Amino acid sequence: TEPAFIPVRSCSIDIHPNARWKQNGLAVAGGNGKGNGINQLSHPCGLYVDDDQTVYVVDQSNHRIMEWKSGVTSGQVVAGGSGQGSGTHQFSKPFDVIVDKERDSLIISDYSNRRVVRWPRRNGTNGETIISNIDCLGLTMDENGSLYVVDVAKVEVRRYRRGEFQGTVVAGGNRRGDRLDQLSGPTYICRSKAFSVRI
Fold first, then answer.
1. Which of 62, 101, 112, 179 lies in disulfide reach of 92, CB 3.0 to 4.6 Å?
2. What is the tens place of the pLDDT at every residue in 138-179?
3. Out of the domains of life, which is the source (predicted)?
4. Mean pLDDT of the chain
5. Coil, helix or strand for 119?
6. How far apart, in whole angstroms, are the C-alpha atoms of residue 3 and residue 137?
7. Taking a C-beta distance cutoff of 8 angstroms, is the pair 130, 167 a contact?
8. Which value, in Å, is the radius of gyration of the alpha carbons in the chain?
9. How many CB atoms lie within 10 A of CB 66?
């Protein structure tokens, strides 16, 4: 089951409780109607903002990851964009993206291909599958380089330390439900500064 509502990752950002928001926002990616042009998006879902305000957007229906530098009017395809498929250069309904700064790469949940892919951030033409056979949605990484992945089918979050292939369940994993040891439709995940996982 694909989720209908997709929230934006937020717990890694400190927002002052008295902060005031401008009434009119500014489009930083897309904003030119639905489409597959470099200034358009089609069903954007995952979003990652880098330290230099570069925005990475999962352009789900175009099966690509777009990079939008601050102040530009069009983006650049940085991963995928070769049509829907399961090749190392393709995605099928990708869902989320994060940046692994230590390895200068993107980590992408390739939902319909049931895999998590690492893609070089600079001039990459192919990705490498780092986790297979997983119904992955949200992703995050902690300060030690451990990767956290939401598996919507198993209704759990797994942590993968570097070199691990099975990972460890850190939330859910006890079927769908409303008990404190269960989850129901987990989508996105982030890590707080208190080292807890938020789903």
1. 112
2. 999 988 889 999 999 998 889 999 888 888 888 887 887 787
3. Eukaryota
4. 86
5. strand
6. 9
7. no
8. 17
9. 26
Give the span between the Cα atoms of 189 and 8, in whole angstroms: 10
Strand 105-110, strand 115-120: pairing: antiparallel
The domains located in the chain, with CATH, are 85-172 (2.40.10.500)
Q: How confident is the model at residue 137 (pLDDT cuts 50, 70, 90)?
A: very high
Contact 130, 116 (CB under 8 A): yes
Structure tokens at 47: 């979003």
Region of 73 please: left (phi>0), alpha (psi -120 to 50) or beta: alpha
Q: What is the identity of the amino acid at 119?
A: W
Please, how many CA atoms are within 13 Å of residue 199, restricted to the half-sphere of its CB?
A: 21
Q: What would the DSSP string read from start to end of 33-101?
A: -BSSSTT-BSSEEEEEE-TTS-EEEEEGGGTEEEEE-TT-SS-EEEEE-S-BSSSTT-BSSEEEEEEET
**Cβ count near 152 (within 10 Å):** 21
**Is 162 in contact with 145 (CB distance < 8 Å)?**
yes
pTM of the model: 0.85
d(C-alpha 75, C-alpha 186), whole Å: 29
* Single-letter amino acid code for the residue at 85: G
Separation of alpha carbons 185 and 174, rounded Å: 13
Q: 195: how many CB neighbours lie within 10 A of its CB?
A: 8
